[in-house]
Write a structure and sequence with these properties.
This protein is mainly beta. It has helices at residues 85-90, 166-171, 177-181, 228-235, and strands at residues 6-11, 17-23, 36-42, 48-50, 64-65, 77-81, 100-104, 109-110, 116-118, 128-129, 132-138, 154-161, 164-165, 187-194, 206-211, 214-220, 246-248, 270-275, 279-287. The relative contact order is 0.23.
Length: 294
């Protein structure tokens, strides 16, 4: 499907935005540490070329890593709730029989190092929370696919933070999941998209969240209730998944709402969400000031 290994989108020193294949130093797997890339020309979901234009006109240090897909390249943002066994346990809820699906608007997406903007409506009450998640990127149209064929439709994997406001999500208006999780800039993801050729088993990845340098989530995708293949197959039944669709696959235990006392995000907090083989996104919580960069 793709010929690149680690897809990134970046603003270069010449002021232009490019898609590129990240170049990492030997032994480094965190895409967020890249400084150079081979520029990609063409359709990232179709015919494209990873050029050698690094030493020539595209020989430049990356000035800014953006969300790895441009807004116009994202079709739908699907999210799963309660997809980790120990997270369901900390929530005091039974394991779901089917994947629990909700959606975020594309305006919730933002870059791997952008601030998380908290609008005035989301500053009401308590409950601002973090959720470390594996993000699956669909690369080929999928409908009614089997579990065995589901991996063939994956472009790659990223890490994301399903930022949530629990009071809006669970209490106000009999539960406002879309509102409580869908504010602008509340789905940072990246720092790039890693090809399945590098991540052979998405069910064996360590994942962590640090809040102001303190480890608050430390788990593995092994604890998923529905695997990546199972969720793609299920979501494609009767519904077409398109290239550029994102699937936030759920969060493990350790979220703020599951703690006693609860641990809520505050203005100025630094949230670091990491996924083995992909890297770490680092986002600062900013009340009422930031605009997401796509």
């Amino acid at each position: 499907m793709a010929v690149y290994s680690r897809l990134i989108r970046f603003l270069a020193k010449d002021g232009r935005t490019y898609y590129g294949d990240a170049i990492l130093a030997p032994g480094v797997t965190d895409i967020g540490k890249t400084t150079h890339a081979r520029v990609i020309k063409g359709d990232i979901f179709g015919k494209h070329e990873v050029t050698d234009q690094i030493a020539a006109c595209h020989s430049k240090r990356l000035r800014l890593l953006l969300a790895p897909l441009a807004r116009e390249d994202v079709k739908t943002v699907r999210c799963l709730g309660l997809n980790y066994a120990r997270h369901a346990q900390e929530a005091g809820l039974p394991l779901p029989k089917y994947p629990v699906l909700f959606y975020k608007p594309v305006t919730a997406l933002t870059g791997p190092f952008d601030p998380i903007p908290v609008a005035a409506i989301a500053q009401e009450g308590e409950g601002l929370d973090y959720e470390c998640e594996l993000v699956v990127v669909i690369g080929k149209e999928a409908k009614d696919v089997s579990e065995s064929k589901a991996p063939d439709h994956v472009l790659g994997y990223a890490v994301g933070d399903d930022v949530s406001h629990r009071e809006w999500q669970l209490k106000r208006g009999s539960g406002q999941w879309a509102l409580g999780k869908g504010f602008d800039g509340w789905a940072p993801f990246g720092p790039g998209i890693v090809s399945p050729s590098l991540i052979k088993d998405p069910q064996a990845l360590k994942m962590t969240t640090k809040l102001n340098g303190i480890l608050v989530q430390n788990s593995s995708t092994r604890d998923m209730i529905f695997s990546v293949a199972q969720m793609i197959s299920f979501l494609s039944q009767g519904t077409t998944l398109l290239p550029g669709d994102l699937i936030f696959t759920g969060t493990p235990e350790g979220v703020g709402v599951g703690r006693s006392p609860p641990l809520w995000l505050k203005d100025g907090d630094i949230v670091e969400v990491g996924l083995e083989g992909v890297g770490t996104i680092i986002n600062r919580v900013e009340f009422g000031r930031s605009t997401p960069k796509l």
